[in-house]
Amino acid sequence: MPTQQPPARRERKKAEMRRAIADAALRLFALRGFDAVTVNEVAEAADVSAKTVFNYFPVKEQLFYEHEPLLAGDPAEVVRHRRGGRTAVALSGLLRAEPAGDLALFGRVYRDSDTLRAYGRELFAGREHALADFLTEPLTEPLTEPVAGLVAGPLTEPVTGPLAEPLAEPVPGPEAEPVAARVAGPVTGPVTGPVTGPVTGPVTGSVTGSLIGSVAEGASGLRARILAAAALGPLRQVWESILLEAAGRVPPAEAVARGVRTLEEAYAVLGGAFEGFLQGRGAPVGLPRHGGATAGLPEGREVAEGPGAGGLLRGPGGQPRAVRGERPSIRRVADLAGVSATTVSHTLNGRRPVAEETRRRVLRAIEELGYRPNVLARGLRTSRSQTVGLIIPDITNPFYPALARGLQDVLGPAGYDQIISNTDGVRRAERAAIEQMIARQVDGLAFAVFHTHAEDLLPVIEAGIPVVRLGGRLAQRGVDVVHSDDEGGAAEATRHLLDRGYRRIAFVCGPAAEGPAAERVAGYRAALAEAGVPAGQALVAHTEFSRAGGAEGVARLLELPEPPDAVLCANDVMAIGALDVAARRGLRVPDDLAVMGFDDIDAAGMVSPGLTTMANPAREIGRATATRLLERLRGAIDEPSSELVVPARLVRRRST
């Protein structure tokens, strides 16, 4: 039996693999630019699978920022471990005086990619939030003066300091969910509610809420966010300035030195504000060091009292409200409704029965508090993001919004949201969109693309994400297909034109006959062959899937020595472009030129003359796709792949 590697060796090998992948990626980024490189290409260069790359770097941008050369630590940790009130000096150390790595190369790749610059802003925003969270953390050292505050939850651990008077309500009821707490200092006044956090100093007043808690969070939290933004704003600007200067003609050492000096000057001003805030956290804004629990509150506000009040404020009309800046939690809803958090969860997700009266109380509490479920937290518990990706070639084509609506008809009630990506029908963009959907950890993927090949889908299949292809007949294990009868529909459309007496019938399709377009061209040719009518190659015009593309394709066909007497277009938008050209040239439709489309979008019945087309029920296809994805997510389908065909239907109007 092979022996297991020691943990230290295992971690070392992981670090080496991570570095090798990141190095291979940086070499490609330097040669071709970040946006032009795909994760598949990085995997090939590093001699690993795309799945391995995603295991180490769930987001493509992380491959680049692995080489970040300037930042030297987490701002929250730097402030946490500052010494002797020297916050300004500590903050200035966030920027390396000696860059790690090739600063000029990193700067050039960064400068040339809007994607990387946007991701950089997200990284700094994350650090800013972390710093603000630290600045609003309760103190862990003893308080030197008594503080009146609010108690929001049950006391479930022993009180280690003396109590002058007994606790009024220390024991949670059967519906409550206990929160561990410990009182480490003397309590000399009556405690009228349970305790949730560590009380580490003396409490001499009447305690009716959390000690460093709800009333203070609005104001002190706002101050913390302002300070965090003031600290991270200069850092990001100086950091980016150094990168852009190094990417140009400024020597990296000179750019760094100038940036460090600028940052030190900015933080010298900010240092006093930080020290004042950090030293004053024992008496948060809005909570006085002496006096009653409602002192310092805005006029007309009072603390909600009694079981389940949970530190809420009540307005003039007695309506419970969460403190400004504080997101209502499921526990607050439970407290206000007098039930457990589990009961609230069951009411929201409907997985277990809840008594009607209880359900009404929960819904009333949700409405009063303005509670919204935390989808991210739910995702952490269930290992699902509750999102489904939809990749489409042209969001301006009315067919695709209708398709998305069909998906939402089914996904919405099931608790899923959509992430939509537009590719303009470009294969490189299609591959990049697939990678981004994997990085965003979508639970399922639907894509209507024309150029994606089987190997492009391997990363999403290896990631275990259910996939439905909309259109085409790609036979691939792990990929379901839902599509209209493209070949049969095109054949029926061609037969309709033949029955109307047209013989020189042209077809206008996309840049290359792939996916659904290939099926429609095949149906067109099969119907002509069946009727014994020649199908010359010159009568098939390749163009863009757009109104302008349709106009350009038909214009070329009309320049042929023997122009067509009818054109069948791959979609209705292209067919409307064909009508534009006919009108500009003074051609009568259908007498001089018959025009027919595919999809039956709303505009097909609004143009003049009305467009004859094949109804391709986009919303129905969207619903069928969403149903298939949900079946895969629930494990209701055993076969590795499946195909569902939605019939197309002829819609006769005046253009033929």
In percent terms, what proportion of residues is strand? 5-15%
Question: Distance between termini?
Answer: 75 Å
Radius of gyration: 33 Å
Major sheet details: 6 strands, parallel
Enumerate the strands of the largest sheet in spatial order, edge to edge or round the barrel: 5-4-6-7-8-14
Number of helices: 22
Which regions contain 5 or more consecutive residues with pLDDT less than 50?
Answer: 139-218, 282-325
Report the average pLDDT across residues: 76
Structural class: alpha/beta
Basic shape: globular
Indicate the percent of residues in helices.
40-55%
What does this structure look like?
This protein has 656 residues and is an alpha/beta fold. The chain has 22 helices and 15 strands. It has helices at residues 7-32, 39-46, 50-56, 60-65, 75-80, 87-92, 103-111, 114-135, 214-247, 252-279, 330-337, 341-349, 356-369, 375-382, 399-411, 427-439, 458-462, 486-499, 516-531, 547-558, 572-584, 618-633, and strands at residues 302-303, 313-314, 320-321, 387-392, 417-422, 444-447, 467-470, 479-484, 505-509, 540-542, 566-569, 594-599, 612-615, 643-646, 649-651. A 6-stranded parallel beta sheet has the order 5-4-6-7-8-14, sandwiched between helices. It has a 6-stranded mixed beta sheet with strand order 10-9-11-12-13-15, with helices on both faces. A 3-stranded antiparallel beta sheet has the order 1-2-3, with no helix packed on it. β9, α19 (516-531) and β10 form a beta-alpha-beta unit. α8 packs antiparallel against α9 (214-247) and α15 (399-411) packs parallel to α22. The longest helix has 34 residues, at 214-247. It is globular.
